[in-house]
Design brief:
Distance between the termini of chain C: 25 Å
CATH topology of the largest domain in chain C: MetI-like fold
CATH topology of chain B: MetI-like fold
Low-confidence stretches of chain C: 288-292
Mean pLDDT of chain C: 85
Structural class of chain B: mainly alpha
Low-confidence stretches of chain B: 1-17
Order of helices and strands of chain B: HHHHHHHHHHHHH
Radius of gyration of chain C: 24 Å
Oligomer: heterotrimer
Number of helices of chain B: 13
Number of strands of chain C: 0
Helix content of chain C: over 70%
Number of domains of chain B: 1
Mean pLDDT of chain B: 83
CATH superfamily of chain B: MetI-like
Strand content of chain B: under 5%
Shape of chain C: flat
Number of domains of chain C: 2
Strand content of chain C: under 5%
Radius of gyration of chain B: 27 Å
Distance between the termini of chain B: 47 Å
Largest sheet of chain B: none
CATH class of the largest domain in chain C: Mainly Alpha
Number of strands of chain B: 0
CATH architecture of chain B: Orthogonal Bundle
Chains: A alpha+beta (373), B mainly alpha (309), C mainly alpha (292)
């Protein structure tokens, strides 16, 4: 039995379809992240799960029970809001215990729950303050505490970290991950931040235009994207897309990349990754997807055993980030980004030999943008 | 997580809550229903009712013998109605215009970092808290030629000074303007002041860096930003003007004769004291028409700007 | 216009002087009627006829106030305006309370529990703010008759509530629109219902708008004359109607000092409210009208 199951949910606002036949299911204790650009329907889906917005059609089940037409209170879920939505007139203690009070939990139990949650989140010293007297990070903790005080079947997090500054966001991200590991709760988490998605999720649903494009583990979504959108959305800097022509036939496909003012680059497609589909595409335009880390600087000492194909290009910009260096190089019609080690000594304008790990490259149909291989 | 507190509860409460869910969906409508009903009956129903009365020959008591638009035709040939309507145009235009100028001027002057701003603002605004009846009674006393301002100025040695508008049929309507401006211009000042405070400081700073002088900044940069305020103020003031009834009753009593009548007093006199319910209703409907003529363009522009914004 | 550097040239100083002069003159203009009213109300009658408007009283007396309160003639009766003052209170207090409560609930339902047509409902009710009341006078008189409320305080309370809720609903709606809806969503998830969310979450943050609504309704209803004169009898008249009758009763000598004292009595409650809470009143009123 799934902790949460969504079956063919559609949602219309007037003539606009914001959710188009969305289905998914997660198990108890799983951390699901809904990710996508703004307007993709992820927040609407979350509100539909919470019962804050009725769906047009479809079914929602929580712990096997159909809740599609139940009120939010009847669904037994807790939610952390982007704006935190702390009750301004109540103290932190009042905020945390309000949900228990509404469910007629006896006072002693309420007090115990507040203490437990305050301990967990290290906000015991803030309990008598009003939300207006708290910093952004403290408010965020209280908002989580309010959700954790109850033990609902599902927790919903609606972009809970987006109002925090960068440093605090990273800290809280780690903390949420720890909490989840410790408490084993079922969490649905909405974000537009793909790093949050990658670091926190057991399971990621990438959404666009009201549809789930791909539902899978972070590894699957990152390394095995179903289309150009998912491939481009996950990862930072994002994947390079290079127009190429597919050549060859049985036993050896090649990708020809035409770069102005350069010799054509021909990259062999690994035999192990051939698909039957490729045969029909010979001679056609395809899109080659290479992540920045699929490039590596050529190390002369390793030349003999290193895998992958060698290419050479003139560096246009070198951006050291500290941990590594991002290089911009012309390849095909545009430029690509390559991530190399921090020790690579290269300046703009110099030519550099790079290795491409074709074993992890992906190939897309240039028209449908679907994955080919 | 320690499952100790609430796990067993939902099952027990489930049956009750489902119906509660239904109730929850209907409660907002139930709460609004009485107000909507009241509004439909007492506002829209009454408007229709008055319209029907205006089509009858009701005199002392309402009757429902329809006579078409005869009452409106009578109104059009009624000298007193024309005086009242003309007075409303004169009164309304002067009242709205002077209030806007005085209010805007005071607001701009008050906006120059005046130390006693709070106290001055309170003084300018307090008349708004008074009843028009009180305003009328006070100004009747001030404008009384025998003992008021005229007498005071004469006692200072200006023997020829004459200020007898209150008893002069040609001028009585202007006394209404004076009293009404006194009462409402502070309110317009407050509107403008709030508008001025809402303007982004950096716009003014940018204009100063561009080398504009202060009056020019106000005229070219600030006032155009206050268009919505002007609009709101015109709307509110016109509304006050059309409804003006108590001020006339208390200050001039519509007199001398009916020289300072307004449609509001005309309507009351005919409907309640002169047993001309049909005619009074017709005049009320024309007043409503006047309000709608101002209101509809206002709401239209409001809605349009909301869609854009 | 703060934080702007200005040169303190002689011309600028002259300008500041003129600025203050204009502002003070304006203040005198607004103050004059109140001052005259107050001065006149404590002068004996002979000083009034002999002296001028602004002459200070030689022998101040509270007799005009006492007479205005307890003996002055308002039409046929000579019992002063005191009784009518209490009539006004008896009408104003329930009317203000009821219309504010109804307006608050309406505003809450219209903003936080939107449903299909809720905007239409709001527009429908909003129109009540704009109608000239002359258009409802005759049907209202007849309806009050049917309800058995003619010339009663209850009838006047009903009238003021009916035509006040358009305003109070507008105030509360505009206020609650700005309160984050997520607060209500959070409370729904916490298991609170319609009334409990209102009582525990919305009401505690509504103090500013309650003040505005109460002050607005209080001044509107206290200062009302039209409904008072149309729908009341001798013993249920509000103080504004009594004041008008007192001033227009022409028996014997015109006692201007008593007139002014009565006007002061009628004006005092709203003046006091304005002085005590005027800051919030202005803030709320202007916020409402600027926003539309």
């Amino acid at each position: 039995m799934s902790a949460l199951e969504i079956r063919n949910v559609c949602k219309d606002f007037g003539n606009e379809q914001v959710l188009k036949d969305v289905s998914l299911a997660i198990d108890s204790g799983e951390f699901l992240i809904l990710v996508g650009p703004s307007g993709c329907g992820k927040s609407t889906l979350m509100n539909a799960i919470a019962g804050l917005e009725p769906v047009t059609s479809g079914e929602i089940l929580i712990a096997g029970e159909a809740v599609t037409w139940k009120t939010p209170a009847e669904r037994d879920i807790a939610m952390v809001f982007q704006s935190y939505a702390l009750y301004p007139s109540m103290t932190v203690r009042g905020n945390i215990s309000f949900g228990l009070e509404m469910r007629k939990v006896p006072r002693a139990e309420r007090e115990a729950a507040v203490e437990r949650v305050a301990d967990l989140l290290q906000i015991s010293h803030l309990l008598e303050r009003k939300p207006a007297q708290l910093s952004g990070g403290q408010r965020q903790r209280v908002a989580m505490g309010r959700a954790l005080a109850r033990e609902p079947k599902v927790y919903l997090f609606d972009e809970p970290l987006s109002n925090l500054d960068a440093k605090l966001r990273v800290d809280m991200r780690t903390e949420i991950k720890k909490l989840h590991q410790r408490l084993g709760t079922t969490i649905v988490y909405v974000t537009h931040d793909q790093i949050e998605a990658m670091t926190l999720a057991d399971c990621i649903a990438v959404m666009r235009d009201g549809r789930i494009l791909q539902l899978g583990t972070p590894d699957e979504v990152y390394n095995d994207p179903v289309d150009i959108f998912v491939a481009g959305f996950m990862g930072s800097p994002s994947m390079n897309f290079i127009a190429a022509t597919l050549e060859g036939g049985e036993g050896g496909y090649r990708l020809r990349i035409v770069t102005p003012d350069e010799e054509d680059l021909v990259l062999p497609w690994p035999v192990s990754r051939e698909t039957p589909d490729l045969a029909r595409r010979v001679g056609q335009q395809v899109v080659l997807g290479l992540r920045p880390e699929h490039f590596s600087e050529e190390d002369l000492r390793l030349t003999d055993q290193a895998e992958g194909t060698l290419l050479e290009a003139r560096v246009t910009v070198a951006e050291p980030t500290g941990a590594d260096i991002l290089l911009r190089l012309p390849l095909g019609a545009g430029e690509v980004t390559a991530r190399v080690g921090p020790k690579c000594r290269v300046a703009a304008g110099e030519r550099l030999a790079l290795r491409v790990d074709m074993g992890r490259a992906v190939l897309f149909d240039s028209e449908t943008e679907r994955r080919l291989a | 997580m320690t499952h100790s507190t609430s796990v067993a509860r939902p099952a027990r409460a489930a049956a009750r809550r489902s119906s509660a869910g239904h109730l929850q969906a209907w409660l907002p409508r139930l709460v609004l229903a009485p107000s909507v009903a009241v509004s439909l009956f007492f506002v829209y129903g009454f408007m229709l009712w008055t319209f029907i009365l205006s089509l009858t020959n009701s005199r002392m008591l309402p009757s429902y013998d329809l006579v078409g638009f005869a009452q409106y035709a009578r109104l059009m040939t009624n000298d007193r109605w024309w005086v009242a309507s003309t007075n409303l145009v004169v009164f309304g235009a002067l009242f709205v215009g002077i209030c806007l100028v005085v209010g805007a001027l005071l607001a701009i002057l008050l906006d120059q970092r005046i130390r006693q701003e709070g106290a001055l603002r309170t003084l300018y605004l307090y008349p708004m808290a008074l009843s028009f009846i009180v305003t009328g009674v006070v100004w009747k006393w001030l404008l009384n030629p025998g003992l008021g301002i005229q007498a005071m100025v004469r006692s200072w040695g200006f023997e020829g000074f004459t200020f007898d508008w209150l008893v002069n049929p040609d001028m009585a309507v202007y006394t209404l303007v004076i009293a009404a401006v006194w009462q409402a211009s502070g309110f317009v000042m407050a509107l403008f002041l709030a508008g001025l405070r809402g303007i982004d400081d950096s716009i003014i700073k940018a204009a100063q860096l561009d080398g504009a002088s202060l009056p020019r900044i106000y005229w070219r940069v600030v006032l155009p930003c206050l268009r919505p305020v002007v609009f709101s103020a015109v709307m509110i003031l016109s509304h006050i003007a059309i409804k003006s009834f108590d001020l006339v009753v208390a200050l001039t009593g519509g007199g001398p004769g009916y020289a300072s009548d307004l449609p509001a007093t005309f309507m009351y006199a005919h409907a309640f004291t002169r047993a001309q319910i049909g005619l009074g209703s017709a005049s009320a409907m024309l007043m409503l028409g006047g309000v709608l003529a101002i209101l509809i363009p206002y709401l239209y522009s409001e809605l349009r700007s909301r869609q854009h914004g | 216009m703060d934080n702007v550097i200005r040169r303190r040239t002689p011309a600028a100083r002259c300008w500041r002087l003129a600025l203050h002069a204009v502002l003070i003159l304006a203040a005198l203009f607004y103050l004059l009627p109140l001052a005259v009213m107050l001065i006149t109300s404590v002068k004996p009658l002979d000083e009034i006829t002999a002296g001028t408007l602004l002459a200070l009283p030689q022998s101040p007396t509270l007799a005009p106030w006492a007479k205005a309160w307890g003996e002055a003639c308002t039409g046929m009766r000579c019992e002063g305006v005191g009784g009518y003052f209490f009539n006004s209170i008896a009408i104003v207090v329930p009317a203000v309370l009821i219309s504010t409560v109804v307006g608050a609930l309406n505003g809450y339902a219209l903003t936080k529990w939107r449903f299909k047509g809720s905007e239409l409902v709001f527009a429908l009710m909003l129109f009540g703010c704009f109608i000239p009341f002359q258009v409802v006078l005759l049907p209202m008189a007849q309806t009050l008759g049917w309800l058995g409320l003619s010339s009663s305080r209850a009838g006047l309370i009903l009238v003021h509530v009916v035509f006040g809720i358009a305003f109070t609903t507008l105030f509360f709606r505009n206020f609650y629109v700005a309160v984050p809806t997520e607060l209500v969503s959070a409370a729904k998830l916490d298991g609170a219902g319609f009334f409990r969310i209102f009582w525990r979450i919305l009401l505690p943050v509504s103090a500013p708008i309650i003040v505005v609504s109460v002050i607005w309704q209080f001044t509107q209803i206290w200062n009302d004359f039209l409904f008072g004169v149309a729908f009341s009898a001798h013993d249920t008249q509000p103080v504004t109607v009594a004041l008008n009758n007192l001033v227009n009763t022409s028996t014997g000598v015109r006692e201007y000092n008593v007139d002014m004292a009565a006007a002061m009595i009628a004006a005092l409650p709203t003046l006091v409210v304005y002085v005590l809470a005027g800051k919030y009143f202005v803030r709320g009123l202007t916020a409402g009208s600027v926003k539309g």
